[in-house]
C-alpha cells in the first residue's frame, strides 16, 4: 500500500454556536520566488545567482506528523501557503470573525542582520498585499529578525501602524532570553504601536533546544519546546519587562499551557525568598502573567480523564488566559470536536472562543 | 499582659539582638538604632527560628536594574527560605498586609520602676542601670526612643499579632 492510496480525512471545522477569533493560523511562504515582488533588484539577483535561497525553516519539517493535517496541502506549494484553502478550511469552516496569521519564516536563523531584515520586510509586505488586503477577517504578526533588536524595532515602526498587523512574532528559541534589556527596543516599539509581542513555537538561534544540550529526536525537539517557553516567561517577568513597559502585552503561541499552574506556583514560592534580587517586581510573578499575558489554546496537552481538565482550569486561577486557536495546518487536535477543553462553563467558553482575544488584541 | 525582664539595656546595644525564652516561647529582642522591638522566633512560613536570621536592610527597585538599599538594620531575613520581615512591625516585605511575624511590645524602663513585678525578677538587675522589659499581651506602652527614657515607661512598637500562613 502506498501513502497516496490512503484517503485523507476531510479537513473540516465545527459550528461552535458563535463566531470565533482564531489566534493561530500558520501561513507559509510558498517559495522564495513568491517574495521576489517585495525584494529589491539587488536581492533578487543575489538569490538567483548564489546558493542563498531564503530562510530555511526546520521547526516543522516536511513529513513530520505535527507539520500539516492531511488535506491541507494545496496542489502547489506547502500547507498554509494558499489563501483559498485558509479561507475554506479555517475562516469559513470555523466561522472565524478574526484570524491571526503567523508566518514563521526563519529569518532569525540568518546571521547577516541586513539579509534578515530584508527578508523579514519582504515577508511582511507579502503578508500585507497577498493576505491582509484580500480578506478583511485576517490579521497578522510582524516578522522581525530578533538578532539585532534595533533593526527589528525599525521594521515594527515601518509596518506597525497598518491595522492588519496586531502583534510582533518572536520565535521562542532565541540567542538569549527575551526579557533581557538588549531586546527592549523590540518591546518599546511594540508598546509604541500598541502591538502584542508574541513568542511562538520554534526558532533557529543556533542554541540547543535544551539546557542539557542537543537531544537526538524530533519528538524531543517538539515536546521540550514548552520548557523554553517557561524560561522565557520567568525571564520576561524578573528582568522587569512588565514594569518597564506598563502597557505591553505578551502572548505565548503554541506553547501549551497545562504546565502553567505548577510552574507559577514554583515561581511564586521561590520569589518570596529571592525577591531582593529583582526588587523592581512590584507583585508576585504570577500576577504579572495573569494581568499581561495570554496563551493560545492549542496544543492542548490534556489528561484522558476529563475531571483533570476541570481541575486544571481551576488551578489556572483566571478565565482570562486562554485564546482559541486552530493552529492550522498543524496537527494538534485529532478532531475538531476536541478543539475545546471539556467541561467549560458558558462564560469560560465565550471568553476562550473570542472575548479574551478581543480584549487582548483590541478587536 | 505579662511583663518580663530581658536584660540590662547595656547588654543590648544598637544593632544587637537577644533571643530569650519567655513562658515557653522563644522571642528575639532587637535594638534597632536605639529602639527596641521583639518578634516571636518563628517564621510564619515554616516555623523556622526567624530571629536567628541575617539582620539587613530593605532592598527596593524603583525601576528595572535600579537597586536601592535603605533602612539598614531594620529587616530580618529568615535563615531557612529567605523571607524578609520588617523588624519594626513584623510585616513581611513581599506581602506586608497578609504575611506577618508575631511581634511584641518592648520597653526600656528604669530598674526601679514602681510597677516592677518582683515575682519575675529572675534576672540580675543593677539598680542604677535601665533594663529591657518584654511585654506579652495586649496593652500598648507609649512609643519612646530609648535615648529619651525618663522616669516613665519607654516603649517601642507592637503590630497586630495576626499570623497568616500561606
Description:
The complex is a heterodimer of chains A (363) and B (166). Chain A has 363 residues and is of the alpha/beta class. Chain A is built from twelve helices and eight strands. In chain A, strand 4 (165-171), helix 5 (184-192) and strand 5 form a beta-alpha-beta unit. Chain A is globular, with a radius of gyration of 20 Å. In chain B, the strands form two sheets. In chain B, strands 1, 2, 3, 4, 8, 9 and 10 form a seven-stranded antiparallel β-sheet that branches. In chain B, strands 5-6-7 form a three-stranded antiparallel β-sheet, with no helix packed on it. In chain B, strand 3 and strand 4 (35-40) form a beta hairpin. Chain B starts with a strand and ends in an 11-residue tail after the last strand. The A-B interface holds A 181, 239-241, 243-244, 271-276, 278-281, 284 and B 45, 59-68, 78, 81-84, 93-95.
Strand content of chain B: 35-45%
pLDDT < 50 stretches of chain A? none
Q: Write the CATH architecture name of chain B.
A: 3-layer Sandwich
CATH topology of chain A: TIM Barrel
- What's the CATH superfamily of chain B, by name? Rieske [2Fe-2S] iron-sulphur domain
Strand proportion of chain A: 5-15%
CATH superfamily of chain A: Metal-dependent hydrolases
Based on Cα principal axes, name the global outline of chain B: globular
Mean pLDDT of chain A: 93
Q: Indicate the overall shape of chain A.
A: globular
